[in-house]
TrEMBL record:
A Pfam family the protein falls into: Methyltransf_25
GO BP term, pick one: methylation
Parts of the chain that traverse the membrane: none
Keyword Transferase: yes
Methyltransferase recorded as keyword: yes
Protein name as it appears in the record: Class I SAM-dependent methyltransferase
InterPro entries: Methyltransf_25 (IPR041698), SAM-dependent_MTases_sf (IPR029063)
Domain Methyltransferase: 61-152
GO molecular function, one term: methyltransferase activity
SUPFAM superfamilies, alphabetized: S-adenosyl-L-methionine-dependent methyltransferases
Organism: Nocardioides marinquilinus
Length: 276
């Protein structure tokens, strides 16, 4: 496959990283001033995440490191990895400013097991909005399996493939399927000048290549690479306004459909353990 998608997507994230770090939505100042502060994403995950104290963990596609540092604050020994040099730079600055002992590595996620110690992690963590940038979920699962030690676990909360397949808001209020649900060889090409957080920055890099991955494809990839699924939960909310015009904001920072939210899963949490 052409590496064009990497160049386009990396340029997009390199440009957005400083804007995200400056946005109140990422709340970096709270990390600086409050040693107990956790990101909204990790706080949502706590009931399913369980005890992570003492675990050696790696956060794949960590962006500017807020979730990575939150996991470190829960007692895990964390490494963050991202392909965007600008994102890694902001993550390192945040770690230094907040006193977090976290390593951040710049590398493509598919190269993670080549640049990090293979088979040495108790926890592989992936957060919201990561898999959609990858053309092959099977290759991602193979990377996860290589990173985990026997008995180590995968934890991922991600946007639901049903959500990624939906179209924009319509005047009649209907929710429609407009985009691929399953992984295809061809990417969906987007031209979007904005971003998902509050910012006044106008971006120059607006073209991205993205892929959806159906639930069956994700679960099969995890199973095919020697992991046992220990949990799968679907949620009717997401930590950003995923369908503007259809949604309402809940306490705790999550958003869901305002009208009959049980119709559409917005996110899911998947847990698996590498078979010894």
């Amino acid at each position: 496959m052409s590496e064009e998608y990497l160049q386009l997507n990396r340029a997009t994230w390199d440009e957005r990283a400083p804007a995200h770090a400056a946005s109140p939505d990422y709340a970096l100042e709270r990390f600086h001033t409050d040693p107990g502060f956790l990101s909204d994403v990790v706080r949502f995950d706590l009931p399913r995440l369980g005890e992570v104290g003492g675990l050696r963990g790696v956060h794949l596609q960590c962006h500017i490191g807020t979730d990575t540092i939150s996991l470190a604050r829960l007692g895990a020994r964390m490494t963050g990895l991202d392909f965007s040099g600008a994102s890694v730079e902001r993550a390192r600055e945040l770690a230094a400013a907040s006193g977090a002992d976290v390593d951040f590595v710049e590398a493509d996620v598919y190269d993670a097991a080549d640049v990090l110690p293979e088979g040495s992690f108790d926890l592989v963590y992936t957060g919201i909005g990561a898999l959609c940038w990858l053309p092959s979920v099977d290759r991602w699962a193979a990377t996860v399996a290589r990173l985990l030690k026997p008995g180590g676990r995968l934890f991922i909360r991600e946007g639901h493939p049903v959500l990624w397949s939906l179209g924009d808001a319509r005047p009649d209020g209907l929710v429609t399927v407009e985009h691929p649900y399953v992984e295809r060889a061809e990417p969906t090409v987007w031209q979007e000048g904005g971003t998902y957080v509050e910012t006044d920055v106008e971006f120059e890099h607006v073209t991205t290549h993205e892929w959806n991955h159906g639930v069956g494809q994700i679960l099969t990839a995890v199973l095919d690479h020697g992991m046992t699924i220990t949990g799968f939960a679907e949620h009717d909310s997401a930590p950003w306004d995923a369908l503007p015009g259809y949604t309402e904001k809940l306490d705790g920072g999550e958003w869901r459909l305002a009208d009959r939210p049980w119709r559409v899963p917005f996110t899911y949490t998947l847990q698996a353990v590498r078979t010894p």
